[in-house]
Amino acid sequence: MNTESAPHTGTVLPSVLSVSALNQAVAKLLERSFPLTWIAGEVSNFTRAASGHWYFTLKDDGAQVRAIMFRGRAQAAGFIARDGDKVEVRATVTLYPARGDFQINVEAIRRSGVGNLYEAFLKLKAKLAGEGLFNSDMKRSLPVFAKTIGIVTSPQAAALRDVLTTLSRRAPHVSIILYPTPVQGEGAADRIALAIGTASARAECDVLLVCRGGGSIEDLWSFNEEVVARAIAACRIPVISGVGHETDVTIADFVADLRAPTPTGAAELATRARSDWLDVLKTHALNLERALRRKLSDSAQGLDWLSRRLISPRAYIAREKLKLQTLTTRLSHAGRTPVSAARSLLSDMRVRLKAQLPDMAPRRSLLAVQGRCIAMHMSSRLAQQRQALSSLSAQLELLNPQRTLERGYAIVTDRKGRVVRSPDKLHPREHITVRLAEGSAEVGIASVQTTLE
Q1: Other C-beta atoms within 10 Å of 330: how many?
Q2: How many domains does the structure of the chain reveal?
Q3: Each residue's pLDDT expressed in tens, for the chain with a length of 453 residues
Q4: Judgement on whether residues 86 and 153 belong to the same structural domain of the protein
Q5: Nearest-CA neighbor of 429 among 444, 448, 416, 440?
Q6: Of 91, 112, 133, at which residue does a domain stop?
Q7: Among candidate residues 255, 276, 297, the one where a domain is terminated
Q8: 111 forms bridges with which residues in the sheet?
Q9: Does 182 reside within a domain?
Q10: Is 105 left (phi over 0), alpha (psi -120 to 50) or beta?
Q11: 166 and 266 housed in the same domain
């Protein structure tokens, strides 16, 4: 079959392609030629399918392209796109083979400009973290009883109404001071920092809430400015940050002494509910009442016991004198009686001991005689053993090989040290050792002669 190379790829393709093969080849070519790329444009024709996939068109003033974002990627977007949104998407360029439609597969999406803001957010966060503004040892603890709470926010913000409602419900006894400031827009960051500095300089509240409601990253950007972060760090009053919703995180949250997920959460963290304090006081009051009643009861019983023991001093002294005389008499008898009994017992035991002691004189005489007999027997026995030892020593001396050698004899041993008793064990040109009375010698054998019987 005739073949030809696909242009620019070097891939060998059949000379006649099916539509499916063509579309698949083009899709692979596009995917290899265009890596993941950030593309900016406006969303239109947005559709969110029941499967969770997003289908929309990304366009600008001069062109448009179809886009698809699968459910797994769309769930991580953090927002739902709408027609007219200016966005930036990170996508791969491809072709949908079934219809031959040119499209992009979106991996990530963000609102236009968010990338630059997020990069600035990370840079400032790293800078302030390096300076130690986020360290836990710089965080101040909140007062247990806050009498006055300061709020830095906009008077028109819904967050202020939420905070005031929460505080009036939880702690109506707490005084509130508002430090009004814009919370978004041009110059808002400087105004927020000025309000925080004013609260710190006046030092008229126990806790300072810096809060605003939720919004986009652009709406919350004032709380990501360095001037606000340094104002919070320099504030002499403990600061609670309650900016945006639970998923919103700003630089102010890291610098503040405590972060609340919402403005309402900040109000709850700043105060303990009045009902909780009343319950605690009620419990303490009940415990104190029970303790006082128990103390009074114990004291009354003690008083009754003491009153029963209370008597006239004269009668008490007379009774104690009588008790003393009785104890003196008992002590006197107790001292004399044991001594007399002990003396009598000692005398009786001496008599009994004397009667039990044997007459030791005959036994001592017998012991002396037996000692002399033993000495004489041992002396005789020792002389016999010495004589026997001398006889054995003389016999051993006669059997000593050295004495035989001294009479002119010799002991012949081979190289292995074995004694040679027969000429059959010897061979010409063999070396033997001849041991004499005063040494030994190495001897070579010239010939061996056997004695004939």
Answers
A1: 10
A2: 3
A3: 445 555 555 555 557 888 888 888 888 888 788 888 889 898 989 999 999 899 999 998 889 999 999 998 888 787 788 888 888 889 999 888 888 889 999 998 887 766 667 778 888 889 998 998 889 888 888 888 889 999 999 998 888 998 999 888 888 889 999 999 999 888 899 999 999 999 999 999 999 999 988 777 777 888 989 999 999 999 999 999 999 887 778 899 999 999 998 998 888 888 887 777 788 888 898 899 889 988 888 888 888 787 777 777 787 788 888 899 888 888 888 777 788 888 888 888 888 887 787 777 788 888 888 888 998 999 888 989 989 898 888 888 777 777 777 777 788 888 777 887 777 777 887 888 888 878 888 888 888 777 655
A4: no
A5: 444
A6: 112
A7: 276
A8: 87
A9: yes
A10: beta
A11: yes
**Short-list 256, 197, 246, 199, CA closest to 223:** 256
The two beta strands, 3-5 and 64-69, are unpaired
In total, the chain counts a number of residues equal to 453
What is the gyration radius of the CA atoms in the chain, in angstroms?
Answer: 59
Considering the domain boundaries, does residue 139 fall inside one? no
Same domain, 99 and 165: no
Same domain, 10 and 64: yes
Helix pair 158-170, 263-270: axis angle to 10 deg? 30
With a CB cutoff of 8 Å and minimum separation 6, the contacts of 212 are 153, 154, 157, 159, 183, 184, 220, 223, 243, 244, 263
In contact, 91 and 106? CB cutoff 8 Å: yes
The residues, ordered by sequence, that sit 6+ positions from 122 with a Cβ below 8 Å of its Cβ are: none
In a domain, 191, yes or no: yes
The first and second tokens of residue 141, run together, are 């603890």
Domain ranges, residue 400: 396-453
CA distance 275 to 284: 14
Terminal CA-CA length for the chain: 116
**95-115 residues labelled b (16+ CB within 10 A) or e (exposed):** bebeeeeebbbbeebbbeebe
Alpha-carbon distance 253 to 385, whole Å? 111
231 falls within a domain: yes
pTM: 0.46
